[in-house]
Amino acid sequence: MNSFQMQISKYFKNNWVPWLITTVAVIVVSVFQWIGVFDTLELKMYDYRFNTVRGPLTGWTASDSTYISSGTDIVLVEVDDEAWRLVPEEWPYPRGGIWAKVIRNLYKAGAKVIVFDIQFDSPENRSEIFKDLIQTTTADYILNQVPSLRDSSQAKYIENSLPKLIPRHGDDMLGEAVAEAQLFGTTVIMPAKMVTEPTSAPPQYISYPVKQIMDANPELGLINDQMDLDGFSRRYSLFDVMAHEPDKYYLTLGVKAFKAFEGISDSAKPYFDSENLIWTYGNRTIKAYGQGNSFLVNYYGPPSGYKVRDQRNLPAWATFPKYSLAYIIDTDDVTLRDPMEDLDWMSQFLPGEVPEWILAIENDAERQEMMEAMGIGEENDVSNSPFYNKIVVIGTSVEVHHDYKQTPFYNYAGIQQLTPGMETHANAIQTMIDDNYINVMGGGLTEFFNEFNKYPLSHLLLIALLSFIALMILQFVNPVIAGFLIIFVCTIYFAIGCGLFVGDIFWGIKSFAPSIFKINLPKVGESYIIPIVPPLVSVGVTYIGIVLYDFIIEQQDKKYLKNTFGAYISPDLIDQMYEDKQEPKLGGQAGYHTAFFSDIQSFSSFSEILEPEKMVSLMNEYLTEMTSILLNHNGTLDKYIGDAIVAFYGAPVALENHEYHACMTALEMDRKLNELRVKWKSEGGWPKLVHNVRHRVGLNSGEMVTGNMGSSMRMNYTMMGDTVNLAARLEPAAKQYGVYTFVAENTYKVVKDQFEWRLLDFIRVKGKNKPVKVYELFSEKNNLANNQSDLINAFNNGLDLYFKGEWSLALKKFNEAAKLEEDFEYRPTTPSKIYVERCEAFKKSPPEKDWDGVWTMNTK
Question: What is the CB-side half-sphere exposure of residue 745 using CA atoms within 13 A?
Fold first, then answer.
C-alpha cells in the first residue's frame, strides 16, 4: 500500500462517522422527498420564482419587452363586473340573444378560434319554458283562459300564431351561430366535462353540450381541472381517459384550441416518449411533467383584469388583451343599460359597419380622421381588429360565479389575487403555441410516490453534492465558521436555482443591484427548474448531525480530560487541551514554565491551637479562595501538601506571559488573604494567630519537565527539574528575610517593567552551587503603598553600598530603610534588619577580598 492509499485509509478511519452521517442524511432526505414530505414547500418555492424572481412576461409590469414585442395569440372576453352592469339581459344570458351574437361578432371580426369556458350542457331554461307553453297551449285552452273569445277559429288562429310571437329556442340559435362561424373558417370549441357517478354504469361519462350545439359539430374539449396538493393550478392536462375506455383520449379545452390554431390533423393522437418525457402531437412536441399526461403551464403573468385597490389608481395587469362581454355585443342593434356607454364599440371591427356616433359627426374631415384613427376604412379592414387571427377565450370573472383558480401569481406584488378559470386555459394555450415549456431537472419536482413517476437519480445526486460540500466544510473549519460558510453555500445554491429559472445564473448578484445590472426575461423555453428544498434540508440535516456528533464526542473527551485534569487546571484550559487534541498519557514534556510554591507562615502553630474541625474548615476556605485565583490565571494545580500549594504555569497548555500570570496570582492571593483576615476577625471564635495569618510565595521560571507521572494504573500530572527545586527552596528562604513573595531572577527579567520590586539578595540556596538573584514583589507598576517608594530607594542605596563593602554607609541606609519597613505582629524580621545585622557583622569581621556578594543559605 503506497503512502497516498495509507493517507486515504487513515482519513476514513478517523472520519467514517461524519461520512456515515452525511450518507444517512442524503438517504433520509431523498426518501422524504420521494414520499412527498417536501412537496408543499417545494411548490411554494416554485411559485416564488414566478411572482418574485421572474415576474410577468407580458403586461405593463414586465421587466422587458421581449414577449410584449412578439405579442400573444390569446384575447380574453370576460363576463366581468362591467358586463354584469351593462349587458341588457339578466344572467344566465340568452343563448340566442347574447351568445349567438357574440359568436357572430367575433368571427366577423376575424377571430380564428373561439373557445368557450362556459358550459351549455343543459337546455336553456327560458326557451324551455316558451317551448312548453307552445306545446301545452291549445285552442280549447285559449277559449277557457280568454272568456271574451267565443269563436274557436280565432282561438285556433292564436294557437297557430303563438310560435311566431315567442322567440326561437336559444339552443337552436346558438347552434346555428356555431355552424355559421365554422362555415366561415372560425373554429368554435365548446367545453365538455368528464363526470364520475359511482352509482351509474359505467361510473364515468362525458357531459356534452346540448344537442343543437352538438349538431353544429363544434370542437369539444374537457375542462376538468388538474390541481396540485395545495389546491393551486400549475399543470395542464393534455387529455383524460375513462376507466372503461382507457385507449380513448378526450383532449382538453386548451389542447383543442392549440390543435385548431396550429392546424393539427384530426387524426393526430398524442404519443408519449417515456424515456425523454415528451409528448408528440402532430408535428409539435410537448414537454411532459413526469410520466403523466400533463405539462407545467408557464404562466405569463397575474390575472389580466386585476386592479390594485389603492390610491395609485394603477391600470389592470393586462397579461393578455382583455375585453368585457358588453363591448362584444355593443353594436347598433343592441342598447346597453347605460346609454352614455353605448358607443357601438364592436361595430368598428365588423365589415361594412360604422358606429352611429362616428356617423353623427357632421364635419366630413373630422369624421374621416376619426375613422382612420379607429382603423375603419370604407370596407372596414378586419385585420385591424384586436381579434383578428386570435384565439378568443370566453369565460366569466365575476365573483358570484366563483370560477377562480390559485396560480403561481397568487401572491404577486404581495397581494393575494385569484385568476379566472378561463385564464388558466389561456396561459396553457399560449405556452403550447410559443413552445415555452418549463424544463425540470429529472422531469418533476413532486408526487414521486405513485405508480407512474420514478424518483430521479439527478435529484439524489444533487442532494448528495450539497451534503458532501457541507461535510467538507465541517472537516476543515469549526462549526460556527462552518455554519456561516454553509449558509453562504446555501444562499448561492438558492440564487442559482432562481437564476436558472430566468436563464441567468448570475441573477443573485444582479438582484442586489438592479439599478446597475439589468435582469432580462428568459428566452422562450429557457426556464429551468431544480429542486431547492430537499438539497437545502439535506445540508441542514448534515450540519446538525455532524455538529451534534462532534458535540457528543467533545463532551466525552472533555469529561475524560476533566476526570484527569479537572482537579488542578481551569475549565478553559481543559477546553484548550481538547482543541489542541492533547490527551493524558504517561511521560513528561520539557518546556519553559513558571513554578509556584506557597506556604502558610507558622502553620504548625495552627494545628496546636485549633480543633481538627476548625482547622479543616479554615484550610478548606483558604485553599478554595487561593485555588480559584490560581485557576483564574490559567495556572495548573499540581498538588496540596498540607497548607502548601504547588502549581505551575504554561503546561499542559501553552500560556503566553506565564511569568506575568504567576506574579499576578501572588499579588491577588495576598489581597484575598487580607480580606480573609478581616473576615475571620469579624466572625469571632478564631484565635489571634488566625487574625494575622500570612503566607509566603516562591516563584521561579525556567526549563522543567511536566507530564503525567506515576504508574499506568494511577498517574499524577506534575513537574520536576532544577527550576522546580529552586522555586521550592525560595519559598522557605523568604522566611529568613521576613518577606512574603520571593521571586527568582529568571521570572523578574521578563516582567520587571510590569511590577514594583526590590532586589533582596544574591543567594546560593542549600543544595545548589549556582547563586541566583532574588527579588521581593510589591505590587503592579505605579501602585505602591504610602512609603514603599521611599523604602525601596533607601534599601537599594544601602544594597549598592553593601555590595561595594562600604559597611558603615550601608548600615546607615539600612537603618533608615528599617524604619520604613512594615511591621506587624508575627513578622519575624525584615530585609532591612537582616542587612543591619550583616553590616555590623562584616564591620567586625569583613569577608575575604574576593568576596562575590553571594550569601549562602545553610538551611532549607
Answer: 9
Query: What's the CA gap between 441 and 458, in Å, rounded?
Result: 7
Query: Rounded distance, CA 231 to CA 669, Å?
Result: 74
- Of 456, 479, 117, which is closest to residue 291 (Cα–Cα)? 456
Per-residue confidence (pLDDT) for residue 722, from 0 to 100? 92
Yes or no: say if 734 and 698 are a contact pair by the CB < 8 Å rule.
yes
Asked if 361 and 389 count as a contact pair (C-beta separation under 8 A), the reply is: no
Length of the chain: 860
DSSP annotation of 120 reads -
- Residue 582: strand, helix, or coil: coil
Q: What is the predicted pLDDT for the residue at 839?
A: 93
Distance CA(516)–CA(497), nearest Å, equals 22
Under 8 Å between Cβ of 346 and 329: yes
Phi-psi group of 846: left, alpha or beta (phi > 0 → left; psi -120 to 50 → alpha; rest → beta): beta
**Quick count: other Cβ atoms within 10 Å of Cβ 450?**
11
Helix 533-565 / helix 479-501 crossing angle, nearest 10 deg: 180
- What average pLDDT does the chain have? 89
Exposure of 153 in the CB half-sphere (CA atoms within 13 A): 0
Q: Are 796 and 759 a contacting pair, CB within 8 Å?
A: yes
pTM: 0.70
pLDDT exceeds 70 at position 355: no
What digits encode the pLDDT tens for the residues 513-523? 877 888 889 99
Burial code of 368-407, b = ≥16 C-beta within 10 A, e = fewer?
eebbeebebeeebebeebebeebbbbbbbbbeeeebbbbb
Q: Nearest Cα to 75, choosing from 373, 305, 414?
A: 305
What is the mean pLDDT of the segment spanning 691-715? 86
CA-to-CA distance for 688 and 685, rounded, in angstroms? 10
Answer yes or no: is pLDDT of 408 > 70: yes
